[in-house]
Structure formats: structure tokens, C-alpha cells
Sequence to fold (388 residues):
Amino acid sequence: MSTATACQHRHRFGREISGAAADFVIAALRRTYAVEDLALTGRDLCATIGEPVAADAFAGLMRRLEFVTGKMTDRTLYENRPGRAAPPDPFAALVARRDVQPIGPGMFVLQGEFLRLQRHFDEHWRAIALRLGAVEQDNPAVWPVELYRKIDYFADFPHQVILAAPVKPHHADRAAVASAYARREDYAAVATDHLAPSTFGLQSAVCDTCYFALQGARDHHDTLYTTRNKVFRNECSETGSLDRLTSFTVRDIMFVGSERYVLAQREAMLEQAVAFLDHLDLDATIAAANDPFFTGDAMIKTVYQNAADLKQELLVTLPFNGREMAIGSVNLHQDFFGRCFDIAQPDGRPVWSGCLGIGFERLIYAIYAQYGLDTAAWPAHLREILES
Ligand SMILES: [Zn+2]
Fold:
């Protein structure tokens, strides 16, 4: 057998895979294997993968993906197509005027008008939450490993995990790291046995710590919470732009309590999301999501997620390339966190929960992408934000 690292895999689906289904298949493959090259045209898929993959494992994955995409629906809850002219991609100009300063893949320092807009929209959603009586929270932006374990995160989302570890607490380890990674050395990554095992990681969502902190609660009453922080994903944009970030800012409004309360709050949050997009008059939709999980046992969860409408995404258009980008979502977890963290309602049943989340970097990027960089030409309701 050859030791070549690249191997070629072909598959012919039973039907044409296009549009959202094709995007899903491609994303799922990329999240599962070290894909180097991938083409999907009509029924035919051709993949070059930079690691050995058994043919039957690959064929099995293709069968599951075909099944899942057959179940995908395209249910749209809200649609607004204002039909404005398409300005050019604002990214380079935002960088040139230093509102957006790239410091690494998917990492940006923000300032100026961009940051003012971010603050404004965060305050907008915070005010909605507080008006509805939400308990405001701050969270540490890191998850203890116990949290990951209890929600089986490593099994479902290994591709998104970013763990952190300190240097081992012995002089020899500290001295070895100090010497190997001194400024005079040339390195772009740190890989060493002198790091201690990870006991925490960077959070990939802002709301999980709220439920984790409720562990063991016996009589949790219907409650709204809100929090804002950075979240972290092991990904970045293919073009180095703001469409996909390693670290970004999210405001969540979480609702925890009885099934009836949570379903009612979910509807109320969807209404808030519609009002928000409508007020901004963005080219946007709200639609049921098909999240590409790592394709282990989680495969079936995607089908289920769509079937039960567990996740509605706020999707905005980037007119310069015609692509849709999610700027937020309204999620229904049912009693998932209630069971994982043993949180009980007064009647003893596990609590239900759900959340609305808005990501600000993408939202503001979309506003510039749709309205252009010349804020003097923006409609009055948007200009007012900057004047306030
Ligand atoms: Zn959330």
C-alpha cells in the first residue's frame, strides 16, 4: 500500500444534490475529514482527503448524507427583499479606515463607527430583555470540561472545540517553555508536552453557562435571562473577511421554565427578530436551520432539528456575492439542558429552555454591505443610530 497522504473518493448520489443540500453535504464533509479538494456537480461528488479514509466508511457517510438532505425542508418564516442596488464589499474600506483591524485569522480589533454600531445594537437587545424582566448575567467566556461532558459536546461538535491549558506547575516545565518559546526563537504555533491537561475551553455559545449554573436546582420558576460575551469557534473566513470569525460578540436572551412558558417566549423572540429585521429593512429571511454537525451519531440530530423547527436562523444577504449569512438564531432546546444539568421545575419535571442570539460583527458587516459605507446616504432611521 502506498503511503500517499491524499486519496481520491468518488460517489454518485441517487438524485441531484443542489442548493442548500449541496452546501450541507460539503460542510458536513469538511467538518468530518481533512478535505483538501471537493467538487459536487449534479449527482457526482469527488473528494480529495488528506488522511486515509476507508471506502466503506466513506460510502456509509454518503448514504447518511443523502438520507439527511432528502429530509431537509426550506421553511421560511419571514422574507424581506427590498431590492436595493448592490454596493461593493465594504470589508477593504473598513480595514483601510481602521474601524476593523485584522490581527490574526478570524480575529479583529474593532473601533470607530463599526464599534459604535455594535454597542448600539447590543444595547438595543439588552433593553428589550430588561424591559421583559430579564435577569442580567455576566459569564467567564470559558467552560469547565464538566460542562462539555454533560452536554456531550465533544461527541457532537469536536470540530468547534478550542481547549485551553496552562503550563505545568513545575519549574522544569516552566523553564522548558520559557526557553523554547523565547522571542529569539522562530515559531508560529506552540506544541509541547509541558502544557497541563485542559480543564476548560473557550465557550462556543454564551448561554450554556447560565443553564450550567442552575445545576441541581429543584424549583426553577419561569425566568428570562440575558448575557453578552465573546464566543469562539475553531473556524475563520476563507476570504479573511467578517463573514466567519474565530472570536465574535453575541447577545443572548435565554428563557428557562415550563414547556408552555418556553414555547411562548420562543414565539415572542421570533416576533422581536421579525420586528428588528423589518425596522432595519435588511434583505433578509428567517428560516429553519440545517446545522452541519460533525457526522458521527449527531447526523440524525440534524434531521430532527429541522423536523421539529428547533432552530430558526436570521439570514441576511451579502449583495456583493449574493450569499446568505446567519446573524443570529432563535433556538428551542426543549428539555435538553434541564436533563443534562438536572434542573427541575417546581413540579419535578426537567426545565425546558430556549434562546435568541444575535452576533454583532456579522450584523454590522451586513448593514454596510447592503447600505454602503456612505452613512450620509443611509435612510434616516439608520443615520439616527450614529447621531444618537
Ligand atoms: Zn444561546
